Structures are given as C-alpha cells and as structure tokens.
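Before anything else, study the sequence and fold tokens given here and see whether the fold suits the sequence. Record follows:
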Amino acid sequence: MCGRFVVSQKVTDLTEVFDAEDDFPDWEPRFSLAPTDTVPIVRERAKSDTGEFVRRLEPAVWNFHPSFMRESKRPQFNTRIETVATNGLWKGAFASGRCIVPMRGYYEWTGEPGSKRAHFLHGPDELLAAAGIATARKLDDGSWQVSTSIITREARDASGEIHDRMPVYLPLDEIDHYLDPTKLDAGGMAAMVEFLHEASDRVAPTISEYEVDPRVNNQRRIDPQDPTLIEPLES
C-alpha cells in the first residue's frame, strides 16, 4: 500500500474542507489514481512577495523526486513512517515539506496473479486526509514540478485483513498541526512521528472494505473518471 487511490471530491469540496486556496482549477474527480499521475495535495507555503504562509490545494506528481535524486525507473510513491524522519531520501521533505493527500479511499488486492480480487478500503465519510510529504525540482524547460509520496504505517482492522500496510490517515481536526510549515529539527521530527502514530490510531479502526469489480485491476483499460469503479461487487 498504497498503489492506487480515489479522490471523488471536486475542487470546491476540497478547498472548503481544508480551508485552502485553489491552485488546481483543472482538477476533476478520479476514481483510480496510479503512481506518476498528477494528484491534489494540500500544503502551506509562503507568498513570494509578503512571506505570509497560505494554505493551497495544488497539483503534485505522485512520484517523489527531489532535486538531488537521479532518474529512476521505479516510482517512489510510498514512504514508511518507520524511516520518514531518518532516511536521507525523505527526511528533508518531512522536516519542511509536509502535506495532506486527500482521498475517498484506496484499492488493495488479494489472490494470485490472473485471478486477483480487488477491494476498496474507505472511511465512514467521503474524505480521508492522508499524511504525505512533498518536494519540488526544476525541470529542463525551466518549470518547477512538485511531487509527493504518501506515508504508510502498519495496517489495522479491515485494512490489516487485506494488506499489512495502510496510509497514515489524520483526523481532520489534527491536520493543522501536521501542516504547520515550521521546519523541524531531529527532535521535532521524532515528535511529529509520534504524533502521526497517535493521531492515525484514531482513524485506523474506522477503515472498512468491500470487494469491487476486478476490471479496476487494469489501469490501462478503465476510465479513471468512472464512478462505478468503487461500487460494491454484486454477489
């Protein structure tokens, strides 16, 4: 986990829930987002003219790629909570590039190749706030690309029955602390990891699952904007 997720909310829904400015006007709901896709994230950044911190909904490539990292054939889209504050690939972004990745839920699979069953894991409400990290790098054409990774933890309850990892979900009333743009030192990062464990413990037991049509298994053949992808599979 997490290798595919759903964001069924429109821009106006996301900006209202997260009290964020809209910097992703082209966003449309997607019911199957895969690594290297462009996804919405929420983060706080300083305005270049005033230095004032502003919370924005903005696009990010779901493939974490800091400027110091060489090109890789393998997307970096999940970050283990156990190493987010210590691994050199992640810790800089965890110190000063924390973000929220909104989602309706995510997919996991069981069974053997060729006959895998697809499961949709979700919370009791239509929006989950996954803890993430973000970074930016300058491309050859001079533009800047923001990329992101979702932090994962050991799974609990329904998610644990399907897969041993799950996203670190935060209660909506706890996201202000995580999005605080203050740069963390080593002690602050350790404290933030502890906060993530404790806060996500409140959400993990609320995650449930149901089986969906296995056509979602083939990302190339489905329409990501098809809302029936998350409908329960008829028995």
Residues 186-203 form the longest helix (18 residues). The mean pLDDT is 93. The two ends are 26 Å apart (CA to CA).
